[in-house]
Amino acid sequence: MDAKEFIARRVALEIQDGEVVNLGIGLPTMVANYLPQDINVILHSENGFVGLTKGDGQVIPNLVNAGGKPCGIIPGGAIFDSMMSFALIRGGHVHVSVLGGLQVDQYGNLANWMIPGKKVPGMGGAMDLVAGAKKIIVAMEHCAKDGSAKIVKECTLPLTGKGKVHMIVTELAVFHVTLEGLILSEVAFGVDVETVKAKTAAELIVSRHLKTMPINQ
Amino acid sequence: MVNKQTTIQEITTHVKDGMTIMVGGFLGVGTPDSLVQILLENEIQDITLICNDTAFVDKGVGQLIAKRLVKKVITSHIGTNTASGQQMINQELLVELVPQGTLIERIRCGGAGLGGVLTPTGIGTIVEEGKEKIVVDGIEYLLEKPLRADIALLKAKKGDKAGNLIYDKAARNCNPTMALAADLVIAEVDEVVEIGAIDPDEVITPGLLVDKIVCVRGAV
């Protein structure tokens, strides 16, 4: 299993029966593949509907996900306009938002929408999701491609939201942002705390109940 | 009721250089392609474009940017259109990036008689720069101001000759809100029907908001 699948499988365990969930583009989208079969989860697509599915491979005209890719909608799904879609987000009607990250810091700040001078795609719906969803999970690979830490003391990139992240899931570990600081809650099987610390640039509090991530590699 | 159905040729007489134009669509889905084509073919210059995203160089409103007809764009995302980023870097295109939910609320305000909206989105980010912050019951919000346009170009599945509109799936997106917020509202539809053929309960955008309706399939 590659790192992304591992992360997606771990995030999927966080989703509870009855929740409305928004999955960001890329790695977060993969979470849908690993949701437990015995729970009822409604996926929200910020371009204007709930009941998002992968579909059966047939292209339905005018039905795309927030990445512009063809998708399906479940029986009982609902289509609405952008105003309703973002009222659902900001109004707390979306329980969980899973997003990717460029940097996350120990205060729960998230940067994931631009790299000044390099890449300025725009924030799309990410700032609204971070501001409004009840629980924000950042799902990302632990380090950047150049090996630098993405979990830092304080974000240096422009923020998407301030103090809103609840949880970070990587291929090495799971972290929770708390008032006391950033708690290292779980490590992947075969990964020790020192390895996680060496690849993390934030101050970490190792949980007294530190667990092994419940996913087989 | 007045028959609002008209032709592409007639619409052409209304678009002018320097106009602020709102166009529906999300990554090109729900964009009125024939109306965008009017702007392209007539090379309408110096457009201020209000749109959810700048789509792609060869699809949706992205073509307007690729053809350098836009001087300023107010949008939430430009990352799928290489021309947008390039022209922004070269200072040929002014880009105002607005969070998606804030953008649609600003458009709603522009068409709903509201002086602005208070949103928590963007607090603590560069989006708050230069904006008034207002605390309500201990929670901090940004004051985001209304947006309006000279013309709104909408896409719908079906309309009656009075302008009542019904949309198709995810092609609805920002179209219904934009119908509120422009001096001239033009809808491109796949099918036009007689007045009375749409159940009033099924109408998404009331026809009173729509000034002109153009059918692009079948007889115009």
Q: Can you tell me about this structure?
A:
The complex is a heterodimer of chains A (217) and B (220). Chain A has 5 helices and 13 strands. With 217 residues, chain A is of the alpha/beta class. Chain A has a single domain, classed as Glutaconate Coenzyme A-transferase (3-Layer(aba) Sandwich). In chain A, strand 2 (42-45) and strand 3 (49-53) form a beta hairpin. Chain B is an alpha/beta fold. Chain B has a single domain (8-117, 145-215), classed as 3-Layer(aba) Sandwich (Glutaconate Coenzyme A-transferase). Chain B has helices spanning 8-12, 33-41, 62-66, 82-89, 100-112, 175-178, and strands at residues 20-23, 47-50, 70-75, 94-97, 117-119, 133-136, 139-144, 149-160, 165-166, 182-193, 212-215. In chain B, the strands form 2 sheets. In chain B, strands 1, 2, 3, 4, 8, 9, 10 and 11 form an 8-stranded mixed sheet that branches. Chain B has a 3-stranded antiparallel sheet with strand order 5-7-6. In chain B, strand 8 (149-160) and strand 9 form a beta hairpin. Chain B starts with 7 loop residues before the first helix and ends in a 5-residue tail after the last strand. The interface between A and B is large, with 41 and 45 residues.
